[in-house]
């Protein structure tokens, strides 16, 4: 049985080119903007999306877990790179393999099956997490990277050579979408921060981001696809707290300042670390462009949430008892914080092969080809 699954593992690796995939695998890290269901497996966590009306536009019966009415940005980016959608959530793979029906199957065989299932990537992202490990109470970034390290160890333990694993990882995409929750939490506690507090916060996030990237690099990552902090001040939640209903400019300024630091960080790392390539997709600029000209994207509502309750449908989260809009394709936001599938589709298109306003210094397509 072990030999059979070892053959399957090698066959999956060898089939990458034949299948038309542009990279061997995609490994995803970050928050709810990239989570496809890891938080489903966190008992007692409130940062979950495995209930209606989330996923309402996914095929009937499909496991929910995305903070959206349907697919999210990482799904569309993965599709552009030749995959069906985002790689599966890491914890779903762990649970599936630990609960296999063949009681006689050895742990080694189960481990090999798990690696075979995730050899084309895994999604470690967890809603509520941040760059800083102190942000949120879900799967922090350090733990996400530890999970990836465990997966790499499993690859090596299934008789794949170090050379083959190194080659696989060096050609794979490592996608990171993080920083929004750090910014959200800081601003919630400091709505009028002074310059010193702002600087200290940004330096702490950028320094920690630097550490995470270097850890991934030392584990074999070479191609980093980064999604920056969105225009948080224009989310329905923050608009609903503003008497005018307009965007909260100080929060947008904070997000922009942090994004400047992230861009500078990756510029420095790209020069320092041999063989590293990166691309940064700007969710901030994408949201700004859609608010500036919603009609060009077919949107009729960019302020209110589709699903929720209260003012702008954003004073309450999206729950099974919430009302929701009938035409999600016309809304920029699904709930009080997260984009609709329609918005995520546009983001995927813009980051994969869009203009310099939305992605740079190269596109995600060029990163995959690098």
Describe it for me?
The structure is a single chain. The protein is α/β, with parallel strands linked by helices. It contains 13 helices and 10 strands. It has a 6-stranded mixed beta sheet with strand order 2-1-3-4-5-10. A two-stranded parallel ribbon has the order 6-9. The longest helix is centred in the middle third of the chain and has 24 residues, at 195-218.
Number of separate helices: 13
Shape: globular
- The residue ranges in which pLDDT falls below 50 over 5 or more consecutive positions are 1-18, 101-106
How many strands, which pairing sense, and closed or not: the largest β-sheet?
6 strands, mixed
Distance between the termini: 38 Å
Mean pLDDT over the residues: 90
Descriptors:
two-stranded parallel sheet, about 375 residues, globular, 10 strands, alpha/beta
Write a concise synopsis of the structure shown.
The protein contains 13 helices and ten strands.
List the topology elements:
Elements: H1 2-19, E1 26-30, H2 73-80, H3 90-98, H4 107-118, E2 121-123, H5 141-157, H6 162-171, E3 173-177, H7 180-189, H8 195-218, E4 223-227, H9 236-240, H10 249-272, E5 277-281, H11 283-292, E6 301-305, E7 307-308, E8 323-324, E9 331-333, H12 341-353, E10 359-360, H13 364-369
Parallel strand pairs: 1-2, 1-3, 3-4, 4-5, 6-9
Antiparallel strand pairs: 5-10, 7-8
Helix pairs in contact: 1-4, 2-12, 3-4, 7-10, 8-10
């Amino acid at each position: 049985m072990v030999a059979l699954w070892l053959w399957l593992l090698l066959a999956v690796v060898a089939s990458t080119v034949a299948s038309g995939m542009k990279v061997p695998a995609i490994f995803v890290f970050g928050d709810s903007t990239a989570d496809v269901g890891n938080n489903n497996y966190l008992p007692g966590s409130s940062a979950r999306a495995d209930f209606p009306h989330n996923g309402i536009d996914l095929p009937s019966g499909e496991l929910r877990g995305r903070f959206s009415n349907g697919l999210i940005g990482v799904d569309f980016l993965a599709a552009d790179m030749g995959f069906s959608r985002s790689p599966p959530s890491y914890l779903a793979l762990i649970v599936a393999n630990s609960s296999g029906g063949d009681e006689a199957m050895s742990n080694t065989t189960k481990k090999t099956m798990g690696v075979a299932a995730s050899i084309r990537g895994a999604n470690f992202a967890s809603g509520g997490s941040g760059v800083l490990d102190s942000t949120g109470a879900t799967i922090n970034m350090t733990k996400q990277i530890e999970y990836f390290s465990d997966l790499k160890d499993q690859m090596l333990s299934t008789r794949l050579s170090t050379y083959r694993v190194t080659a696989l990882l060096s050609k794979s995409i490592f996608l990171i979408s993080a920083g929004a929750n750090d910014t959200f939490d800081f601003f919630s506690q400091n709505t009028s921060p002074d310059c010193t507090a702002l600087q200290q916060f940004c330096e702490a996030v950028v320094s920690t981001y630097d550490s995470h990237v270097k850890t991934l690099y030392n584990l074999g990552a070479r191609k980093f696809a980064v999604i920056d902090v969105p225009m948080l001040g224009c989310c329905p939640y923050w608009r609903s707290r503003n008497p005018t209903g307009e965007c909260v400019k100080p929060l947008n300024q904070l997000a922009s300042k942090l994004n400047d630091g992230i861009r500078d960080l990756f510029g420095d790392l790209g020069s320092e670390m041999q063989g590293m390539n990166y691309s940064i997709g700007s969710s901030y600029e994408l949201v700004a462009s859609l608010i500036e000209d919603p009609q060009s994207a077919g949107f009729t509502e960019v302020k209110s949430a589709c699903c929720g309750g209260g003012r702008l449908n954003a004073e309450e989260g999206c729950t099974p008892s919430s009302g929701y809009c009938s035409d999600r394709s016309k809304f920029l936001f699904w709930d009080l914080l997260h984009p609709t599938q329609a918005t995520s589709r546009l983001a995927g298109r813009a980051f994969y092969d869009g203009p310099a306003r939305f992605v740079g210094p190269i596109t995600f397509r060029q990163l995959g080809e690098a």
